[in-house]
TrEMBL record:
Keywords assigned by UniProt, alphabetized: Aminotransferase, Pyridoxal phosphate, Transferase
Chain ranges of the Aminotransferase class I/classII large domain: 5-122
PANTHER family for this protein: AMINOTRANSFERASE (PTHR42790), GNTR FAMILY REGULATORY PROTEIN (PTHR42790:SF9)
Cofactor(s) essential for the protein: pyridoxal 5'-phosphate
Protein name stated in the entry: Aminotransferase class I and II
Gene Ontology molecular function, alphabetical: pyridoxal phosphate binding; transaminase activity
Gene Ontology biological-process entries: alpha-amino acid metabolic process
InterPro entries found in the cross-reference section: Aminotransferase_I/II_large (IPR004839), Class-I_PLP-dep_aminotransf (IPR050859), PyrdxlP-dep_Trfase (IPR015424), PyrdxlP-dep_Trfase_small (IPR015422)
SUPFAM superfamilies registered for this protein in UniProt: PLP-dependent transferases (SSF53383)
Length: 132
């Protein structure tokens, strides 16, 4: 305990920690993120064209999607953004053009029908880019 913070919140936090509350929270959060990320991975696998590779995060919920040869992640990003679908183009994470065929997706949000539709539409945009 210290004098800078009221003792009541300090005691409440100490009790929470001693009773295992934080450990339970972490287990629950990890499970949530693992399930949400796996749902996103599955949706990408269903919606994106053959030749797409998706990372399997071991300690987070960000998916790195490598698009098929010749597909520009920047172009897909711009088209998705015009439809209010938020992704990050691979070029954002490089000082060269090395990752232009990649996208970064956030798999940590609670899974909803809106997200499922957005991933399906994103996959359709990638399919359209192949035909361009």
């Amino acid at each position: 305990m210290n004098l800078a913070t009221s003792s009541i919140p300090q005691l409440a936090v100490a009790h929470f920690l001693e009773q295992g509350g934080y450990d339970r929270y972490l287990r629950s959060a990890r499970q949530h993120y693992r399930e949400a990320t796996e749902r996103m991975r599955s949706a990408v696998a269903r919606s994106f064209p053959e030749g797409t590779a998706v990372s399997r995060p071991q300690g987070g919920f960000v998916l790195w999607v490598q698009l098929p040869e010749g597909v520009s992640g920047t172009e897909v990003y711009q088209r998705a953004r015009a439809e209010n679908i938020n992704v990050a183009p691979g070029l954002m994470f490089s000082t060269t053009n090395k990752f232009d065929n990649c996208l970064r997706l956030n798999g940590g949000n609670p899974w909803t029908g809106t997200i499922e539709k957005a991933v399906a539409r994103l996959g359709a945009l990638v399919h359209e880019e192949i035909g361009r």
